[in-house]
Amino acid sequence: MAIGQGVDLSFLDDKYQMQLTRRGLIDVSEDQMTSRAGTFAGGDATLGPGTVIRAIANGHKVANGVNRYLDVAAGETADDENKITKFSAEGIKVKTAIKLRELEAEKRSLTNEDSFTPSIQEALDEAGRCFNCSCYSVHPSDVAPALIALDAKIVTDRRTIAAEDFFDVKTPAGTVLAADEIITEIQIPALPAGARSAFIKFAYRKSIDFPIVNCAVMVGGKEPRICLNAVAPKPYRAVNAEKYLAGKAITEETAEAAGAAAVEGANPFESNKYKIQIAKTMVKRALLSIK
């Protein structure tokens, strides 16, 4: 519900004075930083009355500006996939979580925050604890490995992208799409003559559920294509297994060997190493289902 058309900046007391525009709005840079270094603003306070959509978009811009200010620009990650599971030795040291400083009870009011914002160094230290705690995030899609195994193409309003190249761990969104880019169609080529494909999934429940491991395979074309998912931050094409299987008939022995090749070089955490055996089994079962 709208309660007015003006922008109320009365909360900017003497301690937080900053430069305003001719319209009486908070003046910000391209990164949404105000005239006070390290202080950012967005939404109606900088744009004037507008829509919720515009305010949300501006909030996204503010977040990116804060990231750049903290020297951790969005999308900045390791140079190659192998570095995903490597951590700073400093980060794995046992450290106590920061304790937020709180305002004394008698000084609290509707206009004063109960807790103080952590300093930049405190925030960086806490982020270090989080990023080096040995937790893991995997790509959960069932559709993604199938598209990759079938050599599908993702068509957007400006380009065509191979499904294998579409998913990316180097961006916050997990894909290579630009912020204003839209998918218009997905092209799945017809299987080559004599080719066969299969998809298999292991999950806790048979109903809709995230996979523990899933696997899509296609054999009989120019080359076998095998893709696992829920084992890495993006769909994992098992190239070693494909190379092993090329030119071979699918038998119990070759399917099992392909499964072993698929997990060569795996570097699991203690808490998810059970996935290696499941991944091997998924590859074997998927191949045997279409032999």
What's this model, at a glance?
By secondary structure, the protein is of the alpha+beta class. The protein has helices at 44-47, 52-69, 120-131, 143-149, 163-166, 239-245, 252-262, 274-288, and strands at residues 153-156, 160-162, 183-187, 196-202, 213-219, 225-229, 236-237. It has eight helices and seven strands.
Provide key terms for this protein:
291 residues; alpha+beta; Enolase-like, domain 1; 3 domains; 4-stranded antiparallel beta sheet; 3-stranded antiparallel beta sheet; 8 helices; elongated
Could you explain how this protein is built, in words?
- The protein is α+β, with helices and mostly antiparallel strands and 291 residues long.
- It contains eight helices and seven strands; from the N terminus they run H-H-H-H-E-E-H-E-E-E-E-E-H-H-H.
- 27% of the residues lie in helices and 11% in strands.
- Strands 4-5-6-7 form a four-stranded antiparallel sheet, with helices on both faces.
- A hairpin with a 5-residue loop joins strand 5 and strand 6.
- Helix 6 (239-245) runs antiparallel to helix 7 and helix 7 runs antiparallel to helix 8.
- The protein is elongated.
- Mean pLDDT is 84; it is low at 77-87.
Largest sheet: 4 strands, antiparallel
Tell me the strand percentage band. Answer: 5-15%
Number of strands: 7
- Name the CATH class of the largest domain: Alpha Beta
- Adjacency order of strands in the biggest sheet: 4-5-6-7
Number of domains: 3
Rg from Cα: 26 Å
What's the overall geometry?
elongated
Q: Quote the average pLDDT.
A: 84
* Topology as a string of helices (H) and strands (E): HHHHEEHEEEEEHHH
CATH architectural category of the largest domain: 2-Layer Sandwich
What is the tally of helical segments?
A: 8
Helical amount among residues, as a percent range? 25-40%
Distance linking N and C termini? 63 Å
Q: What is the CATH third-level topology name of the largest domain?
A: Enolase-like, domain 1
**CATH level-4 homologous superfamily of the largest domain:** CO dehydrogenase flavoprotein, C-terminal domain
Structural class: alpha+beta
Task: Pick out the low-confidence regions.
Answer: 77-87
